[in-house]
Specification:
By secondary structure, this protein is an all-alpha fold. Helix content is 83%, strand content 0%. The chain has five helices and no strands. Helix 1 packs parallel to helix 3, helix 1 packs antiparallel against helix 4 and helix 4 packs antiparallel against helix 5. The termini are far apart.
């Protein structure tokens, strides 16, 4: 959709970006649940699926109130990440999944921090700000899982 106001366009783009983050993490988490035999990785993946599904639910409701259309499937970059991860197995799979989650969460935190300070829409600003503590907590979980996987 075309926006007359560039600031509103940035807020709408944030909703799209946040949706893509959630969709990718859900998809990668489902793959990790299927392919990994590591209990820590499976637990991390389960947590990510649950958290990102809940986030996606609230994000979808917010986007609807703002009349912003968000994606309902992963983008090409997320599909490429899935294909890359699916080609791995064993400890290589676990390490790659954790690395993807670290990189993804660092990028998500930066995106959400920017939106929490620059958004012109108070509802979007509040939502992005409210999501930050969970994103940081998830990153801590990912780091812990990554350390365990590196020892294997």
């Amino acid at each position: 959709a075309k926006f007359d106001n560039k600031k509103l366009e940035k807020d709408a783009q944030f909703l799209v970006d946040a949706t893509e983050i959630n969709l990718e993490e859900i998809q990668l988490g489902q793959l990790a649940q299927e392919k990994s035999s590591n209990a820590d990785v499976k637990e991390l993946a389960k947590m990510m699926i649950t958290a990102d599904s809940n986030s996606l639910k609230s994000l979808t409701a917010l986007a609807k109130t703002k009349l912003v259309t968000i994606p309902d499937s992963v983008n090409a970059a997320a599909q490429d990440a899935y294909t890359q991860l699916n080609g791995k197995s064993g400890s290589d799979f676990n390490k790659t999944y954790c690395t993807m989650m670290v990189d993804g969460h660092k990028k998500a935190i930066a995106t959400f921090e920017k939106e929490s300070t620059e958004s012109r829409d108070m509802d979007i600003k509040d939502w992005s700000t409210a999501m930050l503590p969970d994103l940081r907590k998830h990153l801590d979980h990912v780091f812990a899982c990554q350390k365990k996987c590196e020892k294997m």
